[in-house]
Design brief:
binds magnesium ion, alpha+beta, 5-stranded antiparallel sheet, binds thymidine-5'-triphosphate, 13 helices
Length: 434
């Protein structure tokens, strides 16, 4: 284990919601919920003001509406999220060449290459570096806040950034690792999802400290060799995983448009299995392992959705890709038939990062990212809440709500401060969906 807390983990606070509050001044300080607004939609994220009411990621949207009826419910703008992410990752890349993006808003940075000699920076200096990085993120993204953790391993840096949330820095000094994690729930350990938690709680184990009461042999008996050994070490804060830069954003995908819409899940499952084999073969050929698995579905009305999940490790196994793809498909409504089904992978690395870390990947419900394309090209424009619009006379604004042939727009931008609300006919020629 390294002797300096020189692994940094940065995670933006309430990312999607914070971008919305940045660009929509009237929503600052208010509950904002971003996610799928349809019948089966789930919450992508909630602003801290909405979390007070118990709203959280992956919760069904109807439940969020019940808990926090006065929140602003927005469909999400991935272009704006991607742009903010690009800026943040750029700032991190200037810190060190070893940056591993885990998602749009989260990355590990290994600071070792930029330290003059190992341990040349004191804890105080590392915290200063973290504060400077946070200040840069805020300056260049127009005010987004990030939380930063520093520790001597990826696990510890991630725990530290969780403890720093929101809008803070936390460094776990070398030697304090085991104590810091003792009180945390066992689920804080990477790779421990609901299925493993369930098995552990049957043994009466809830916290990391309680997990340490089990011998390595007992853990192996309970969770298998790889999983058991992994858990035994991580419970003692032993984590040697390297920060592995993910190669350029590329993806491999295979998709099929059907001659006739398909509604039968078993048939769709077979197609997923076939696609996954093709994807895995192409991965193997390129000598890569992928970290993010995506399923794409298009409905007969040409609206489509991409749902993805990112693994802790990386894989090139057709079975694992298919398993996760199936799980992603499970969350989608195919009852009326779909016209296209695709499986894709992205987030490439050159090593299979301990794929066995994924103790129960297929059981984890969270961290599903959903991107909806309402199929604008084929149907009348959709005035989804939160989308950007411009009016010839009133300028830029966003869709506040629509219905009965009318759309209500609030005219404001990140720069203007809270702006006025106006209602238009849907066919008003001066109003444009951006
Ligand atoms: P997180 O970093 O997990 O959450 P967050 O940034 O919203 O809040 P926190 O302050 O606790 O970090 O995820 C980053 C973004 O990824 C989040 O804003 C929305 C998206 N996301 C999903 O779409 N689905 C999910 O299940 C989760 C967890 C996140
Ligand atoms: Mg975040």
């Amino acid at each position: 284990m390294r002797r300096t807390p020189s692994i940094l983990h940065l995670d933006l606070d309430a990312f999607f919601a914070a971008v919305e509050q940045r660009d929509k001044p009237s929503l600052r300080g208010k509950p904002v919920i971003v996610g799928g607004l349809g019948m089966r939609g789930v919450v992508s994220t909630a602003s801290y003001e909405a979390r007070v009411f118990g709203v959280h990621s992956a919760m069904p949207m109807h439940e969020a509406r019940r808990l926090c009826p006065n929140a602003a419910f927005l469909a999400g703008r991935f272009g704006a999220y991607r742009e903010a992410s690009r800026i943040v990752m750029g700032i991190l890349q200037e810190l060190s060449p070893l940056v591993e993006a885990m998602s749009l808003d989260e990355a590990f940075v290994d600071l070792e290459p930029c330290l003059p000699t190992a341990g040349a920076l004191s804890d105080e200096e590392l915290v200063l570096l973290a504060e400077r990085t946070r200040a840069l993120v805020s300056e260049y993204t127009g005010g987004l806040t990030a939380s930063v953790g520093l520790g001597n391993s990826k696990f510890m840096a991630k725990v530290a950034s969780e403890l720093a949330k929101p809008n803070g820095v936390r460094l776990v000094p070398v030697g304090a690792e085991a104590d810091t994690i003792a009180v945390l729930p066992a689920r804080a350990i990477p790779g421990v999802g609901p299925a493993t938690m369930e098995r552990l709680s049957r043994l009466g184990i809830k916290t990391v400290a309680e997990l340490r009461l089990l011998s390595e042999k007992e853990l192996v008996r309970e969770l298998g060799k790889a999983g058991g050994e992994h858990l035994f070490r991580l419970a003692r804060a032993q984590d040697e995983r390297a920060v592995t830069p993910v190669r350029e954003a590329k993806s491999i995908s295979v998709e099929d448009t059907f001659e006739q819409d398909i509604a039968d899940r078993a048939q769709l499952g077979a197609i997923i299995a076939r696609h996954s084999v093709l994807v895995a073969n192409r991965l193997a050929k390129s000598g890569s392992f992928a970290r993010t698995i995506t399923v794409k579905v298009r409905w007969p009305d040409f609206s489509s959705v991409s749902r993805s999940r990112t693994l802790y490790g990386a894989t090139d196994s057709a079975e694992q890709i298919a398993r996760i793809a199936l799980l992603l498909l499970d969350g989608l409504d195919v009852a009326g038939g779909i016209r296209l089904l695709g499986v894709g992978v992205s987030g490439f690395t050159e090593v299979a990062q301990e794929p066995l870390f994924e103790l129960d990947d297929s059981a984890q419900p969270g961290r599903v990212v959903e991107e909806v394309d309402p199929g604008l090209a084929r149907r009348p424009p959709r005035w989804l809440p939160g989308n950007d619009v411009a009016h010839d006379e009133f300028g830029p604004g966003w869709v506040w709500g629509s219905g009965l042939g009318r759309v209500t727009v609030r005219f404001e931008t990140a720069e203007t401060g809270p702006g006025p609300v106006r209602t238009f006919a849907l066919d008003d020629e001066a109003l444009h969906l951006l």
